[in-house]
Write a structure and sequence with these properties.
about 200 residues, mainly alpha, Arc Repressor Mutant, subunit A, 2 domains, about 70% helix, about 0% strand
Amino acid sequence: MQDRRKVRSRNYLIKALIKLMKNKDVQAITVQNLVDEAQIARSTFYSLYEDKQDFLNQIIDNMFYQLREQTKPEKFDTLSDFYETACYRCYMKHFEYIEEHSEFFKVMLGNHGISSFRKRMEDSAVETYEEIFKYIDETKLPIPKDYLIQYVISAHIGLTFKWLRDGMKYSAIYMAELVSRITFKGIFISFSLELLQ
């Protein structure tokens, strides 16, 4: 099977999963359900994945990998650049990516979704924030870095989920500005510290 055909088959299967999960628990969805909905052969499915769990793991891992790639922080030189430019761009890309793949995120977080999805999203976000905090002087932080990262991630993911549940009634631009203002003109300004190394 050519690479383009594999990509097309994967996309068909993801669309099939999203459609099925709107009305059915993910645990109850079978490989046969997926291939019937995607209109592909079972042999095609098994040429791509070992089983349904492998399929789920791969598509979720890939979704978060792509999100991390989209939101990689850019180098910055001052604290002002940090929260007004570098992180704002990260948040903008984050909400644009979530918006583009909103149906996937909605079903994964919905009543028929995967219970571990939020934890996996948090773990993915930790990687992004560890990259951001490489430029921060930890000795000047008033609290342990890992606790600060967890606090920020919990707030951001919570806001992201609320945005999805509310039907994304605000734009990605508005959400990026909101998160930037709350986080970096709240938390870090309150420290009144020059945090960059």
